[in-house]
Specification:
The protein is an alpha+beta fold. Helix content is 29%, strand content 31%. The protein folds into two domains: 63 residues, Orthogonal Bundle (Arc Repressor Mutant, subunit A); 160 residues, Chorismate lyase, CATH 3.40.1410.10. A hairpin with a 2-residue loop joins strand 5 and strand 6. Helix 1 crosses helix 3. The longest helix is centred in the N-terminal third of the chain and has 14 residues. The protein is elongated and about 70 Å long.
């Protein structure tokens, strides 16, 4: 079965197949942002009833892949869109992006062993003089910067990865797990909006003062020991963070 064709025998509902085909076309830039996705055009293309077409477009709109213009139709949304589900494992964002077919690229710089700023040290419960591995990671999707993260990690002194190793692995915590068996159990997040400084405006290709999304995370190992801190800055329109609460 060629990409872009429906498979009625697959057991996957037709609307989901149509949604995935259109989602991939929007994500990889194949879909023309100036050309509407009309029901008539999609009915002719997929040879199905209106119900699966409407369901697919409705879900694509709710997830930010398309938008509707009154009286003109449904249009692809340009730029990168990442929906991070609540069940993405701690330290596995890069892996999630890869598995989602977004082909992320990673650049790591500024690797050093340092004493963390006092505010971070307090949150991690660091001992006096304890030095952490610190670096900055820039993740891009489709050649557009998605996030810039400053990371402080609690790790053995002989854990000294190179930038190339961190870029190839995609996650320093995954590399730490492979080498030392230190695993993450959970993460706590705080998120807020901020305005782009001159430096961040240059990084993300936006105007100074444009809205950005900050997500600050504390990682915990199995057993509850704080393992690290990360502050990730995203272009607000490119990233949707989903979370759940329970009692």
């Amino acid at each position: 079965m060629a990409y872009g064709e429906l498979d009625p025998s697959s057991g996957v509902p037709l609307y989901r197949q149509i949604k995935e085909i259109l989602r991939r076309e929007v994500a990889d830039g194949t879909a023309d942002p100036g050309k509407p996705m009309t029901e008539v055009q999609l009915l002719d293309r997929f040879a199905v009833s209106r119900a699966p077409i409407r369901q697919a477009l409705q879900e694509l709109a709710s997830e930010g892949y398309v938008y509707r213009k009154q009286g003109k139709g449904t249009f692809p949304v340009t730029g990168t869109r990442v929906r991070r589900p609540a069940d993405v494992q701690p330290g596995a964002l890069y892996e999630y992006l890869s598995e989602s077919g977004l082909h992320p690229a990673s650049r790591v710089f500024g690797i050093e062993r340092v004493e963390a700023p006092a505010a971070i040290g307090d949150r991690l419960g660091l001992e006096e003089g304890e030095r952490l591995l610190h670096f900055t990671r820039l993740i891009s999707v489709a050649d557009e910067p998605l996030l810039e993260a400053s990371v402080y990690m609690r790790a053995p002194e002989d854990f000294a990865p190179t930038a190339e190793e961190l870029e190839d692995e995609g996650s320093a915590f995954k590399l730490l797990e492979r080498r030392f068996g230190i695993t993450l159990d959970r993460a706590e997040h705080e998120a807020w909006a901020t305005a782009a400084t001159a430096d961040r405006a240059a990084t993300f290709g936006v105007s100074e003062g444009s809205p950005l999304l900050v997500i600050e995370t504390i990682f915990f190992t199995t057993g509850g020991r704080p393992a690290g801190w990360r502050s990730a800055v995203h272009r607000a329109e490119d990233f949707k963070y989903r979370f759940t609460t329970s009692r």
